[in-house]
Sequence to fold (268 residues):
Amino acid sequence: MKQRLISAFFGIIVLVLVLLGNQIVFDIVVTLIAAVAIYEVIGAVGLKKFKLLTLTAMLMPVAVMLSSHYIEKHMTAIIFAFLALFMLMMLFNHKEYTFVNIATVFTAATMISLPFVYVSMTRRLGNENLDVLVILIGCWITDSCAYFTGYFFGKHKLAPKISPKKTIEGSIGGVVGVILILVAYSYVAGNIMNVEVNIMPAVVVGLVAGIISQFGDLCASIIKREHNIKDFGNIMPGHGGVMDRFDSLILVAPAVYYILKFFPIFVK
Fold:
């Protein structure tokens, strides 16, 4: 517990510093986090020994982040370019770079690169950190509310073969908790920043994020269970790796981006 608290304390300090930075600093940090997460997942599935494959995968968030600034409508072209590159690697060294290896690494790189870029794109919607915090609340508060609700009231297992400690009561508590906290956050942040607040989108975001963040967490648990590991890494003592802290973001970030793009919570 002491390790978790110390790691959380330093993590909050880093988060505050990143949020205070400009968009360039923010994007660099987000890209680095995505690259580390990709490295952790590749290591978890036992493919880290293929250094060229790993390096190529870790470059995908860099390329996608850059493309989001200049050719946002054609980000899929960047993904396609990496797909072609991976296939060429398989073509010229198919004994090591088998289809399964290529498909695994490409999937890992894509499923991590895109969501993290959506975090950056959310910051560019016009409300900067106000909207970014909506994503983080949607991920982390859901997890915390689900944990404490399950700890005190959990009786019925949610997915015992995937994550034995998760309960249906905890899952419901996570959704309800994040909706309430997002609504409260919207009111408080709106008043502090003197901007108009639309509460209905906050409720919708809370409901959507509360549900799909748990999907992301369970999918990450499947990967860990398949490969008999407890955590993806140990970069954060007591918390595991980067991927352990951001697994729920994979589904939440894109969903929140599109909700806020068309139905903003904060209106300046």
